[in-house]
Amino acid sequence: MMADVHAGGGFRRQAVVSAVVLVVLAVLAVLAALPIAGDAYVLGVAARMMVFALFASSLNLVLGFAGMASLGHAVYFGVGAYTAAKLSLAGVSGFGLQLGMAGLAAAALAALFAPLILRASGAYLLMITLALAQVVWGIAYGWREFTGADDGLPGVRRPDSMLPWDISGDAGFYYLILLLFALLVAAMLVLTRSPFGLALVGIRENERRMAALGYPVGRYKYIACVLAGGMAGVAGAMLAWQNGFVGPSCLSVAYSATALIMVILGGAGTVFGPVIGAFLIVALENVISGLTERWMFVLGATYVLATLFAPEGLVGLWRRWAEHRS
Amino acid sequence: MSFWLYQLLAGLSFAMLLFISSAGLALIFGVMRVLNLAHGAFYAVGAWVAIALAGWTGSLLLAAMGGIATAMAIGFAIERILLSRTPAEELPQALLTFGIMLMLGDLALWIWGGTPRTLARPEWLSGPVRVAGIVFPSYRLFVIALGVTIAGLLWYLQARTRIGTMIRAAADDAETARGVGINVPRLSSGVFTVGAGLAALGGIVGGPIIGVHVGTELDVLLLSFVVVIIGGLGSLAGSFVGAIVVGLVDTLGKALLPDFALFTLFAPMALILALRPTGLFGRQQ
Amino acid sequence: MTALVVDHLVVRFGGLDVIDDLSFSVRAGERLVIFGPNGAGKTTLFNVITGQLHPTAGRVLLFGQDITAASVARRVDLGLGRTFQIATLFPRLTVLESAMLAVQAGAPHRFVMHRAVHSYAGTRRRALELLEAWDLAPRADIETRRLAYGEQRRIELVLALARRPRLLLLDEPAAGLSAEETAAVVAMIREMPRDVTIMLIEHDVDMALQLADRVLVLQHGRLLADGDPTSIRHDPQVAEVYFGAGRG
């Protein structure tokens, strides 16, 4: 799983690592070159892919690394999106401020929810995360004056940046998303290879043993929840800019489940798995929706097929294949 | 006074509809430890099929039987073909059944389109009746009676029959149940099928009141979760009490705080999970 | 010096006294084996000492400090280590990663998020030293779940040693092992430095007597006998309740 945590290992592993590095660089290069060739539609899809990749990665931090499932992760995504939207509509246009506040608001909510979540496990963990998210969804759906209820908040504008380039245009905005995406995935890479990240994996693998070794398991899980919430909030702010609109659906169980399937399809507990899962699902959505109206059917079938045939995700399938071959 | 009586009766009839719709979820979790996120889809299937059959045949009884049979057949196939091949862990089961819900919901949209529909109510239940000084729809009284009857039947089935004993044994400890010769896989198929049928019955009973629309499957799933969580996952008695709590709270909430109906629905669920994670009637783990 | 004092300990589940007014103490460096039939309260005693379970009454002192109310983590910091009845490891981590995790548990950098694990050369070196010392270095890069159960048990002992515990509680360290694997585990425990005090729950009488300086026999949560292995072996009361059926 985290076979590349430590240096050492043989020639084969180094070859695999270099192959991964090459693929990552190639994908980044394609993403960076996209504005040259692609039109606004393609840029929009690519930006959406990256936003959802960050959302899925934030869930992966708790699910894949700390081993805590959630049926309500979209609550942080949605709260981040609403925060950015409210700030934008209130005339606070700074991009750093919007991003920071969105992340903080979502992290604060996670800090509030985490004590309840940490007590549960198994089916009850899925239920409590769903219940808490539904409470917030209920508020967003009901509080017309503040959240616009089911009409949501239209008219969210892209933020002003202090970046050396103009982000009011499609390409400029796209590069902002790309920059944030690259930074946050890099941060995930660093985090998951750190002592903290290794401890999270230890907790996922064997919580009791970690406690017996003297790790304050609860504190690790708490921090993981807050970090994951904050990261989802940041992704939510990016979604609000990208869509120009925020509605209660982005807090819904459907979004929480979407994040889950992205993580599982790509491969939980790996940094690139959820990114791959999110890219695939968003791409598939756009391709299928262009061909037929039956996208929801295809999405549902994806859940079923992934659960039955790729329980460890595409990264897991690939690893098994590579192992088998060697 | 009559306002409160009306609210009470309305709340109770909604509560019994909730009980019928969610009992299967509790039963399935109790025996199989599966969180069946496709539960609401069986409700929707029951309602859609019954509405279509009522249109063709003109018989509500045939329509109801057809709706229930269709949902049971789909439930049986899902349990045998898909669920039995899924690892016995919460997350894969939740994802699988969520996917099934999406597929069934989209199939219904494809076949019947996006227009909300309701089921006709039987002729003899179409009028209002006078109860203790207020005028109340007779169909809703029928729902209360039906809910109580089904609760009684399920209680009898579970407490007094051989199948009930097997169900309780499997719910207590599947390993031991297997040891004393209970065919747990077959029991699971049966329970899942019956659970799907109960949900479809809920869809049919609810057909004249709330009808069915795009997204019904998710709405019903969430409502059912509130009910079974408040009562305690996996306990039929708990679901009955949970349904009454939710039915009354929701009806009152809609009457008093219409904007926050969803909040008043989900907040008690979160509160109960926070204070007593296994629900009012659930066993402590 | 006294490593552990258990003072009038009571643990009650429902109406049942699983541990019933138990008192004893353990000298530093001692090898203490705890015998007793199933349900005698042995694992419960371990769980109280390690803090997973809180006693109904009584006190536990670790190297002179009252730890009755201390957290699990605090007790580990004071020098307590344990293994479980069934080997519980990190199945998808390699042996080296597991050892590093164990070493890192006591390090100030265990919460660091911005630096790679392997950049902490000290942690890595100490983990490798541990594996070398116990002949597990050739397994360093293998995922734990791919190892034989006997090796997993040895790794569990290594993990428990990583934080240099002063009192180590071993709950049936050889349960489920073949004779050969058991011999390896026994050898390993015998090789452990004498400044580590060891308390051991063991059902295998021969193995236990090979290791013990002193034996406690528990029955129904009470102390039935306390003495050196030879005297315990010949205690008629002990023979009756414990060795009776098995060795008759």
User: From the helix content, strand content and strand pairing of chain A, which structural class follows?
Assistant: mainly alpha
Level-2 CATH architecture of the domain at 2-88 and 171-247 in chain C: 3-Layer(aba) Sandwich
Main interface: chain pair and counts: A-B, 46 and 46 residues
Beta-strand content bin of chain A:
under 5%
Number of strands of chain C: 10
What is the rounded Rg of chain C?
19 Å
| Biggest sheet: strand arrangement of chain A | 1-2
Beta-sheet strand percentage of chain C? 25-35%
Compressed to H and E, one letter per element, the order of chain A equals HHHHHHEHHHHEHHHH
Spatial strand arrangement across the major sheet of chain C: 6-7-8-3-9-10
Q: Share of helix among residues of chain A?
A: over 70%
**What is the first-to-last residue Cα distance of chain A?**
17 Å
Structural class of chain C: alpha/beta
Describe the structure.
- The complex is a heterotrimer of chains A (326), B (285) and C (248).
- Chain A is built from 14 helices and two strands.
- Chain A has 326 residues and is mainly alpha-helical.
- Chain B has 285 residues and is mainly alpha-helical.
- Chain B has one domain (18-275): ABC transporter involved in vitamin B12 uptake, BtuC (Orthogonal Bundle).
- Chain B has helices spanning 2-32, 39-57, 60-82, 90-112, 138-160, 162-172, 174-179, 184-206, 216-231, 236-256, 261-275; strands at 128-131, 134-137.
- Chain C has 248 residues and is α/β, with parallel strands linked by helices.
- Chain C has a domain at 2-88 and 171-247: P-loop containing nucleotide triphosphate hydrolases (Rossmann fold), CATH 3.40.50.
- A six-stranded mixed beta sheet of chain C has the order 6-7-8-3-9-10, with helices on both faces. Chain C has a four-stranded antiparallel beta sheet with strand order 2-1-4-5, covered by helices on one side.
- The radius of gyration of chain C is 19 Å and the shape is globular.
- Chains A and B meet through helix 5, helix 11 and helix 13 of A and helix 4, helix 9 and helix 11 of B.
